[in-house]
Amino acid sequence: MSYQVPRMNELESRAWLSLVWTAELLPAALDAQLQAESGMTHFEFIVLSTLRQADDGALQTKDLAAAVNSTMPRLSRVVGKLATRGLVERIGGQDDARVINVHLTGAGRRALVRAVPGHIALVKRLVIDRLDAQQLEVLAGALEPLVGRLDPHNRVGFAAVQHMAE
Q1: What pLDDT, in 10s, does the model give residues 82-107?
Q2: pLDDT-derived band of residue 64, with 50, 70 and 90 as boundaries?
Q3: Does any domain span residue 4?
Q4: CATH number for the domain including 89?
Q5: Where is the HTH marR-type domain (predicted)?
């Protein structure tokens, strides 16, 4: 017998609990793979990937924080660690010393390039290869409106980076 969330029918419960447990379990699996193979966390990978997509590989910290859905203190700690490892640089703003730009270094770009194949292989093994093309279409069609509802101003992800460039 499956668990049913109170005040939801069986289908609603299945869908909701599947989404919740995917959201809980997938990041831990991605993090473990990236740590083991590339020495970086999934969040560090997201930061580096976001910078890679930005014009000139750089973003202001406030824009980077929004794009990766992070608080400023968390982002500051992670950027500090990445800077210590030579993967990013923090550069003061030309007109305002309070503005800090985070720039992806050549070493950061190379670390990201080395990390991508293993990361993509795991994503394919855990998610993509488990679903056929129709199921992937349904998944994308179901989740895209949720992302749009949760982020109506396109603050996160690569859409945010593209939006900032306009």
Answers
A1: 999 999 999 886 665 577 899 999 99
A2: very high
A3: no
A4: 1.10.10.10
A5: 12-148
Q: Give me the pLDDT at residue 152, please.
A: 84
- Look at residue 31 and tell me if it is in a domain: no
Q: What is the extent of the structural domain holding 63?
A: 38-117+154-165
Q: Is 131 a domain residue?
A: no
For tokens 């800077």, what's the residue?
Answer: 83
Tokens of 13: 């419960």
Please write down the HEC assignment for all residues of the chain: CCCCCCCCCHHHHHHHHHHHHHHHHHHHHHHHHHHHHHCCCHHHHHHHHHHHHCHHHEEEHHHHHHHCCCCHHHHHHHHHHHHHCCCEEEEECCCCCCCEEEEECHHHHHHHHHHHHHHHHHHHHHCHHHCCHHHHHHHHHHHHHHHHHHCCCCCCHHHHHHHHHC
Task: For residue 138, tell me if it sits in a domain.
Answer: no
> CA 121, CA 124: separation in Å to the nearest integer?
5
* Rounded Cα distance, 111 and 83, in Å: 13
By the 10 Å C-beta count (0-12 exposed, 13-18 middle, 19+ buried), 24 is classed as: exposed
